[in-house]
Amino acid sequence: MNQLVARAVLRGLIGGRSCKRYVSPPSAAAAAVVRPFDEAVVMWRAQGLGQWRRAMSTAAEKATAVTEKDEKESTLAAATEKKKEGGEVMVASYWGISRPKITREDGTEWPWNCFMPWETYQSDLTIDLSKHHVPKTFLDKVAYRTVKILRIPTDIFFQRRYGCRAMMLETVAAVPGMVGGMLLHLRSLRKFEHSGGWVKALLEEAENERMHLMTMVELVKPKWYERLLVLTVQGVFFNAFFVLYLLSPKLAHRVVGYLEEEAIHSYTEYLKDIGSGKIENVAAPAIAIDYWRLPKDSTLKDVITVIRADEAHHRDVNHFASDVHYQGKELREAPAPIGYR
């Protein structure tokens, strides 16, 4: 039947007749669809059957492109309007990037984007907290005295407000690992040599210190002037440590080692105030429970205990790195303590 109609239309066109004789006039709703066909017929009469076919093909491609565009826009709009629980808006990514479904061991959905379940761990609480590197060389004494001098304004400003002190401490403690890892990374690129795993080890340290800060922010809400102080201290310390690491990596690591010793002391005093009741032993934040794999009923005391253990591990890593440099070797010649925390 379709072939008979097509033949009749072609005969009418060849004979100079209007195709309207065989095809009923289009309705208003179908005008947009018929118009490309009418335009193609006029072109065919003027230029021949070959161009008529090309015109029909072009019209069909345009209609298909418009349809696909409309479908894509409607899909994107629908995905944008779709909301998760808690009011978060899910936006469809043009690049096909999406987060896979991640769950805890009990099957519940993983709530954090800043770290994944395979990055969590149980802190080693058996580490010796009393270790101390006795300064012997001139550079060791410079590092030790520098840290002791830096502690004076901290004690004056924060006194026994150990929550705020810890928050400030972590904004500084997260800088050395990032600076050291960055400079070792650039050195590895310049010299076409491996870093011995030290880039990863130092960046792990920086990330761990940052998670300390994210935990403390859940416990202590910084005031505006404390935020301003953080900006100032971080800006000064980052640039100073950057220059120091370029000039003397062994001195830089020794300074960090002594800073970590002071951190252990501060967290020990924090625990004393919690034990004496001066600081309320509140429930542990959810982020700390998941990051350190703590029991659900953990408290602030448990959180400070695992953070202090982390600081002891960072103390060991940085004193070890400084010792490697003192022996006249490069860090890549010594095994990197990856995962040592």
Automatic annotation (TrEMBL):
User: Is this entry keyworded Transcription?
Assistant: no
> Is the keyword Disulfide bond in the record?
no
Q: Which Pfam families match?
A: AOX
Q: What class of enzyme is it?
A: oxidoreductase
Q: Say which domain of life the source belongs to.
A: Eukaryota
- Kindly state a single biological-process term from the GO annotations of this entry: alternative respiration
A Gene Ontology cellular component where this protein is annotated is: mitochondrial inner membrane
**Listed name of the protein:** Ubiquinol oxidase
- Native species: Camellia sinensis
